[in-house]
Amino acid sequence: MSKTASNRAKSTRRKELTLDLIYGKPGLNGKIVSQVQWSPDGKLLTYLCGEGNHDQIRAYDVATKKTRVLFDFEKILDSSAGKHRQWFWNAGEENLPWKITTRFDAASTLTPSFQWSPAGQQLLLASAADGPYYLFNLATETLSSPLGINQAATALQFSPDGQWGGFSSPSDSQLKKIAVAGGTAVVLCKATNPFGASWGADNTIV
Hints:
By secondary structure, the chain is mainly β. Helices cover 7% and strands 35% of the residues. Strand 2 and strand 3 form a beta hairpin. The longest helix is centred in the N-terminal third of the chain and has 9 residues, at 3-11.
């Protein structure tokens, strides 16, 4: 057999499909891209890139046509201990596909998210649906301490001047804001089951 034919045979050789291959890293689905959004200045096309259980915020520079990593969620995974977003194998007496089960809790799944500040200097991010939430300074590449945002908060957004973060707190049905510099949240008003909120340039939230 020629060297070329031998190499072709090796490349097409079947590999046993095991649970480690199915649920390990990298995943069989390859890279998953989501949350595509432009930076405020329109120079970077940013997105969340997930591969297995590894998530990064990446940016494509329109001018240089190069991609770089803005933030790696491995930096805050310790704070999400006990949360999960993958399938788990229930090892019973038999190693059968139907023994694979899920432990699913929508509030504690690892669903990373990020949001640009209006000036494009910071990212508001979280590695899980219920937080905790952080601010990442892009210039200094520093991460803040966890912000005092309620667990499972919704309608998160920056104020137009970027000095505040607004959110809805389902646990006590209130609309709140918190200074990005830190501190405790301030109650703005009662808000029962809001579907969303918009912080306008005139500082009015609707």
